[in-house]
Structure formats: C-alpha cells, structure tokens
Fold:
Amino acid sequence: MTTVAPKLEPIIRPVQYRDLEAIRRLLVDNYDQSCVGTFYGHEQQLLQLHRWSGLLKLLRLFPNQLSDQLRTYVWEQSHELAGVVQVSPFNHSRSTWRFDQVSVAPAFGQQDVGTQLLRYCLENIWEARTWLTEIEVNQTAALALYRHNGFQPLAQITYWSLAPEQLSCLAERDPVLPNLLPVNNADASLLYQLDTASMPPLVRQVFDRHIQDFKTNLVDSLLSGIQLWGQTEEWIRAYVFEPQRKAAIGYFEIKLCRNATHPHEARLTVHPAYTWLYPELLAHMAQLTQAYPSAPLRLDSTDYQPEREEYLQQIGAEDLEQTLMMSRSVWHKLRESRSISFETLQLSDMLQGLQPNHNPVPGRMTYWLTRMPPVLDGRRLGSGGRRLPNKHSQKRPSRRVWPSEF
Structure:
C-alpha cells in the first residue's frame, strides 16, 4: 500500500544561499514569464546576491543599516521555490519602501502567490508608511496585482535614449554654465530645496525626502567604492548654483560606461522656473560622454515635467518605454488584548473611576434635611399639604376712616 506524502503548507522566508540558483532561473531564464513587476538591473541585483551572500549573512547577526539595504523573501511550497520578492528602503528615514522585483513561477498562480508576497512585506516591515513600485504600462497582470492590493497611480515615467550620433551633435555646442559646481555634503540643503521645488506636493509627500537623503556618509562611500572597484563605470555629479537667490537651480548625475557594454545612464533635475537649463546641461553631459567609447545615453522624464519631454522630442530622442509609478500608504493596526464592541459597552464600564467604592454613610446634614418640612414656592407646607401663612404675605387690616377726617 502506497502512502501519499502530505502536502506541505507554503511558507515565506528570507532568502538563503541555496535559493540563488532557483532565483536565477526566475529572474534571468524565465524573466518574461515570471515577472509581475518592473525593476531595472535585476541581473545586477542577482549578481550582488551571489557576491555578497556571505557578508549579508554575517551582517544579519547584529542590527545595522547595511543588512536592510536589500531584503529578499521567497515563497516555498513542498521544498520548491515558487516566487521571490525584493524590497529596499527608498529614503534615509526608511518611511518609504520600494518593491524592486516580484517574480512568480508560471506553474503557480501569479496573482495568488504575488498577493501573498506583497502582503507579507506590507504587514511585516512596520517602519514603512508608504510603498512605491514601478510597472511597465504593458504589463497588465502586474498592474492588476498592484491595484488589487491597494496601489494607486502616482506619476507616469518615460525613458528616452540618445544615440551616439545625437550626443556628438549636442557636444559641439558650448554650454553656458558659469556656476557649475561639484557636489559634496555641504550642498545637501541646496539639493533638498531643488528636489522639493521640482515635484508636485503628492509626489513629494510620498518620497518623504530630507536633507540627510542628499548626504553621503563614510559607510556609504566605502560601499560605493567597493562596488565600483574593478568595474567599468564612473559617476559624475554636479549642480548649477544661482548666486543671487543662493539656491541650486539644476542638478545632474551621470554613470559613464568605460567599455560601451551598456548605455550611459543619467538623472536630471531642473527647477521649474529655469527650464532653459535643459539644453545646457544635456550639452555638458554629451561632452562628458565623448571621452569614452560611443554608447547611447539613457535618461527619464515624468509627466509633471512637460518641458523636458518637449525638448527631448525636439532633439530626436527615442522613446524606449513608459512605466507607471504607483504608491500605497500603510497604517498598521494596534493589536488589542480583547475585542471591544462599542455597541455592547455600558456607561458604567467606561466610567469605572467615577463609581463609588461603597454606599455613602448618612451624616448630620442628611438627617436635618429629612426633618425639615417640605418647601413649595418658598413656603413650608403643613400637615395635609396645606400652605402655612407667611408673615410677609398676610394682608394688613384696612384703615377705618372717621367722619372727622372729611
């Protein structure tokens, strides 16, 4: 008689070293079929998991910020990995977190497993008040998954690409940038003011950035140096200073590829009142790319920055893809020891501190009041309820008039 092995209940747990091969199959081999969320650079994240798995395991032994920079959880059912989710903090205060990647094996229900993975992160990462994600507009399954779990559209992002020939034409122009300065920690307040002024209030509230988000501490600098050591990338950051207003009016950062294996990547922020900086900053970034092998330049624009999109269309930039940024707020409920229904709650239960501990003892004042006759309209009542005469209310006898007075 053959016995059927019991089916194990699915569990969600942190990633382990033995899961890396299954994660590679999900994120690389079957990415198009398993992905239910957009994240650029998932292969680089997988490479980092392989490279730093031993260090991350060591860092989890004691509380620190580096161990939480990238959290990965897997869905395991019957000793088989069915899904993976990657999340990371979006700002320095860790009030906003981001879903970097959600992938589910095609053999399992993507909506069910994806919902369980999302809700596990929403319920267990208590420091997150707001969640972000970015979905390609053509991924209908991913859009339905996030909408089902309470995410709402926040902004639409368009990714553009400038060909090497277009970069060469832009580099011929001499940009007018008299106050272009390198970025350091002393400029964090200026960059924070620029970031605040360049986005609408709702996006600013969701991002929840502060001055600390624009500073680089020693640990982050060392970590960035280790990641870039031996790689073919170089970072350049600078901003435009306006001396009259004592403010930053433009900022860019560009990641240059030294061997043309992948495109250059740039991020650009311009104050809404200084849109004339778009041609100047792009011309400067195009000049920076000329010192490296020819490769396209990739940058993005949002729907709340229409001037940038108009300029990119004028210079012939290619529209690569469009994504939708979505967000959701989380309010964790406090766990109560017992359930309380306000309909069945009595007034005596609510005002327990005002209830007497024992029956009051009658005093002399209470005894004297019981001996006094009742009073009605300022007059004491006699026996039978008759009113006793009041000396002030008795009629005086009428005066008799004698004839001699006439």
Q: What stands out?
A: Residues 142 and 169 are 39 Å apart (CA to CA). The chain has a mean pLDDT of 79. The first strand starts at residue 11 and ends at 14.
